[in-house]
Amino acid sequence: MAQVRCPYCHEYIDQAAYPAHEARNLAARPDGQQTEYATLPEEDREQGELAGLPKVYVHRKCGVATGMLEEIIRSYLMNPFLYTADATFCCGCGKHVPNRECVWTETGEDLQTYTDKLRAAMPETSPKGCLAASLIIGLVMSGAIAAAALG
Ligand SMILES: [Zn+2]
Ligand SMILES: [Zn+2]
User: Where in the sequence is the domain holding 113, given as residue range(s)?
Assistant: First the structure.
């Protein structure tokens, strides 16, 4: 049976079972965060030091600081088109809020400007239409091909 590589847990999942599996990953936890967030597989993430890069942001509307998960930082550094929702979780509000409303405590820059710069630095992956979505599908597909090669 065809398999896809789950962008949340990076396991190989039967295609037919994937929608239910994805729904479990996207389900909200009691604190409002998703159960899991999409990331790149560990081997594809940024492997270098994160020293000097912003990691904590404040939501301007509520003033509460939230730390960005390291696996997410290491994923968007390699593919800034992975998180096209352009929203991030705020611990103060208990929900996802627009990147534009959040600023890094380290640099004072808002998260949307930061993301846009990361994207502009990778023109070869700039979205044309829905390329961002197809990038994620491409990752899933390459996982499926790898699974086929293994099996
Ligand atoms: Zn999964
Ligand atoms: Zn907030």
Answer: 3-150
pLDDT digits 0-9 by tens, 19-68: 999 999 999 999 999 999 999 999 999 999 999 999 999 999 999 999 99
Q: Nearest ligand to the C-alpha of residue 19?
A: 1
Taking the alpha carbons at both ends of the chain, their separation in whole angstroms is 10
Residues 6+ apart with CB under 8 A from 150: none
**What are the helix and strand counts (H, E) for the chain?**
4, 7
12 CA to centre of ligand 1 in angstroms: 8
Coil, strand, or helix at residue 142? helix
Tokens of 41: 């597989």
Distance CA 7, CA 133 (A): 12
What is the reported pTM? 0.78
CA distance 102 to 60: 6
Question: Dihedral (C-alpha) 67, 72, 74, 77: value to the nearest 10 degrees?
Answer: -100
DSSP conformational letter for 121 = T
Tell me how far the alpha carbon of residue 10 lies from the centroid of ligand 1, in angstroms.
Answer: 6
Domain total of the chain: 1
